[in-house]
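Review box. Two proteins, two foldings.
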Amino acid sequence: MRKVSLLILLVLVSINASSQNKQILYNFTSVPQSMMTNPGADYEYKFYFGVPLLSGISANVGSTGFSAYDLFADNNVDFNTKLRNVVFSTTNNDKLVINQQLEIFNGGFRVGDWDSRGYVSFGMYQEFDMLAYVPKDPLILALDGNQNYIGKSFNLGDLSAKAEVVSVLHLGYHKKVRENLILGARGKIYTSSFNATSTRNSGYIYTTPSDINNIYDQVIYSNLQLQTSGVSSYIDGDKNDNPIKKAILGSDLGLGFDAGLTYYPKKHIQLTASLLDVGFITHSKDVKTYNLKGYYNYQGINPDFVNPNNSGSTFKAFQESIPLDTTFTKYRTWRPVKMNASYQYSFNDGRGGADCNCLGGGEEQYQNAIGAQLFMMTTPKIPLTALTAYYRRSLFRNHLNLKATYTIDSFSYTNLGFGLAGSIGAFNIYFMADNLLEYRDVSKANSLSFQFGLNFIFKDKDEYFQE
């Protein structure tokens, strides 16, 4: 029983993790994809399009409380000992987070004349998103059993995880409604090809001495649920399913929106804010929900849950008390909502007048900027939060743009990041990575991320002339 429980719990921790902060990309308007983090970003080029499948590639992974090195270091320490050390050094609020995103296509263009300052953006991307919390109490029970924990209540609510693959078709519009204010919004259609959600669990397991000598009361109350969609066809081995096609065009649909703004209280001071992925997905195709709900009380010394054929086995009584029930009812999941806000102070480097629009329209009239950004994201427990300080610099008449960041979040207090965006004519390339100090030994890193992309950006003739 302990081996089976441990295997199940390790699988849950290993394969489930949620999208993360893109603090380098946010408000880095030299890159068109920055509009995906704020539909109201100050972006004014004539039009652009991304290289299909290469315009936006990003991935990040993060864990709190432990790293890969803690579990897999080649240091002659037994794995079981490493696992115990990790379990007992973490809390049930520690988490594993993974996100991967691939842009399939992306583009945008200005509408109306220059004074109207309207902009349309569109595209489609695929995303793999996972989040799992450390199920500390169930792991302790699976590792040690209950012999040394008489009277302790093991919380089954520690089991909290979700994972999904979605594709997102989006259409956005932003407009400079005043000289110092830009508003933007984006509508989204979600298609989900895979979802597994188990976040509303409760229950407990505890053992107490009985009134009868050498006998114990062992109680299990379970209210566990795992909702899945798009999973059965893989388990059943449906050969008619094309996994690549299914990953891009899922059968479950949902709707959502983004909103954002950029405001200049003064010419050199910028405020931004955005709200992303306010939406839901209704899962109705290939749906299975597994429930383990019930109450079981065993009086004895050592219940046998392993071999139901043994004499005196309690397995059948346990199954009858806490049955595994499977239903096929549709369900709804909400997307993790993300919020960004930033303050930026821009200044010239002394090679031109302070009010000189040396580099073209919008915020990039200044060659230097410093700022701060706040990020928050909803989760089944405590929201993910991050605070970033950054410095931006434009070089070679805006052909090369740099951004350096320092971020504090639950994953790391020493997260240094760097982004670079360069242009040769209309061709634009960018690369971003964070936690640079951890690349000395990535196995010890608590979080890592990168972003890469290729675009073509076309400007007005007067913008080329200003360069």
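Next protein.
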Amino acid sequence: MKAAQDDMVIKVRGLVNGFGSKIIHDHIDLDVRRGEVMGIVGGSGSGKSVLLRSIIGLIPPRAGTVRVFGQPVGEVEGPDMKALEMRWGVLFQQGALFSSQTVAENIQVPLREYTTMSQSLMDEIAAVKLTMVGLPEDTAQKYPSELSGGMIKRAALARALALDPELLFLDEPTAGLDPISANKFDELIKSLRKSLGLTVFLVTHDLDTLRAITDRIAVLVNKKIRVGTIDELRRDKDPWIQDYFSGARGRAALDSAG
């Protein structure tokens, strides 16, 4: 039993989120297993990014509990919370790079915040992370305004990997990318997950990404959550889930796997 519990990297129970009188999540439960890629989907306003931000402690829930690596997020403080944050990396929507800093300086932000390592060592780490995400060495001294959309996402991913996390949060990582760049990013995540042993929490609306790299998918619908594989969810009778996975666009994306 303990081994099974240890396999749960994220454990959400009875989570309630809302703004004003509007409830977005109504007592939802979610488990994310060690080593899996969990996709999070839902309609506009369903609270996909809100769920991610609740899990990492940026949005305090109205009720419920969130545990990451067994630690109660929102209850641990100081050095304990800092130690927990060092075990995950986050790629926010649109990359969220600091425009006034070079790519290398952006990658070094978590290193400066959480460690006391020397500048020369931080420069070495930034170079390694750039190589890891498939960016050329000279990207380090460029500014975000000089990068393409795909390069921005990769640079932001390099920053998320700066502290060698075990858990990676990705918020709409392929949004705004052309199909070729999106496919290359999916392949990169798949490769990094395998080589680094990552657990991945992936917010997306991209059916191709869901098909390519997820193990299970959590669907936010009607303030609740339903979890399953793509095949299991395609059999779900909920109208939104049916339309999403088995509508014309869903069939085209999912059936293209052959």
